[in-house]
Amino acid sequence: xxxxxxxxxxxxxxxxxxxxxxxxxxxxxxxxxxxxxxxxxxxxxxxxxxxxxxxxxxxxxxxxxxxxxxxxxxxxxx
Length: 78
Fold this sequence. Notes:
Layout: H1 2-20, H2 29-32, H3 52-65, H4 67-74
């Protein structure tokens, strides 16, 4: 009894999977006129990677300017 129920459930899920895997419907003229959106790519962000020395230099500079002390007092929660 359990075996037949499991087989029936498996067949139902397999059939549903094939239904979702069918081809996409043909696009209409209104859909094809829509502009294509370019996906985000991390290499296009324009941010350059910093070396360890550059990050260390920024840290020392922030300590000397008092920026770290100001942030510590801001986020202390008082």
